[in-house]
Structure formats: C-alpha cells, structure tokens
Amino acid sequence: MLIDKETAELEFNRFIDAMDLEMDESSDADDKEDYMALKDKFVKAISKGSLIIDDKGQPVYTPERSDDQKPLTFYEPTGANLIAMDKRKAGEDISKFNAVMAEMCKVHPKVFARMKFKDYKMCQTIVTLFLA
Fold first, then answer.
1. At what angle do helices 29-48 and 117-131 cross, to 10 degrees?
2. What's the CA gap between 32 and 76, in Å, rounded?
3. Which residues are registered as beta bridge partners of 53?
4. Weakest-pLDDT range from 2-6, 22-26, 43-47, 121-125
5. For residue 13, what are the domain limits?
6. How far is residue 21 from each of residues 13, 95, 102, 115, 130, measured CA to CA in Å?
7. For 9-57, what is each residue's pLDDT tens digit?
8. How far is the C-alpha of 123 from the C-alpha of 15, rounded, in Å?
9. Residue 67: Cβ-neighbour burial (10 angstroms; 0-12, 13-18, 19+)
10. pTM for this one?
11. Which of 65, 76, 109, 119 can pair with 102 through a Cys bridge, CB separation 3.0 to 4.6 Å?
C-alpha cells in the first residue's frame, strides 16, 4: 500500500465534501452495507495509488489491468451527463451506464467497453457514489 488507510479515508471524505455528496451511513441496514462496500473499495484503490482525488476533489482513476492505462478523471456530473442515458434503448442498462461514465470522463464509451472487468468495476463504484 502506498497510502495508509487513515489518509485514504480522509481523501474519500474530501471527495464527498468537494462533490457535496450526501452519504448517510445511518440509513437502513442494506443501504448502509452497500455504502460501506463502495466506500471500502474506493478507499482501497486510494491506498494502492490507482485512485487519487485531484485539487478540485474529483476522482482520477488509473486502470490497473486494462491495455489502455491512461488516467480517467471523473468530473462532477451535470444534468447533460445523465441525458446520455436517454439516447439508449430501454433494457440497454450497461450501455446506459457506459454512456454516463463516458460523459463524466469526457471519453468515448468504447473506453469502458474495452476495459478489464476489475477496472470497470472500480469505475462503476466511482459513478455509483456520485449517483447515490
């Protein structure tokens, strides 16, 4: 680990504060468990150094296993980013999610389509925290 867990958790909190996200750990048990799983994965990635929080509080993830290992900045989402889902057909849930991730990162959706699953899951974690 490159960063100790305490510092990684401080970075997670900085992200939450900078993006003005409301993470209520006191909600029902299932929601709390889901939130803690997302948080743990996020903190672990910070500890390993594959995820950093930039000076604007935005997550920057560098894929670990994918062929394309260019860092991806997950910019604070806008309403226009979410409209990307509307351009997909009903039932195309993965395509919709890829479209939102691509809009947030300002890359082509193929970046996520070609990504190894371990890296893809981390990107999903980041976006899920934004949308939760």
1. 130
2. 23
3. 59
4. 22-26
5. 5-131
6. 10, 25, 20, 27, 7
7. 999 999 999 999 987 666 677 778 888 999 999 999 999 999 999 999 9
8. 15
9. exposed
10. 0.88
11. 109
Question: What is the C-alpha to C-alpha distance for residues 20 and 40, in angstroms, rounded to an integer?
Answer: 19
β-sheet with 72-73: strand ranges across? 51-53, 59-61, 72-73
72 C-beta neighbours (distance < 10 Å), count: 26
CA distance 81 to 109: 12
Residue in 97, 70, 65, 69 with CA at minimum distance from that of residue 84: 97
Residue with tokens 């860092």: 71
Q: Judging by beta carbons within 10 Å of its beta carbon (0-12, 13-18, 19+), is residue 128 exposed, middle or buried?
A: middle
Do the beta carbons of residue 73 and residue 60 sit within 8 Å?
yes
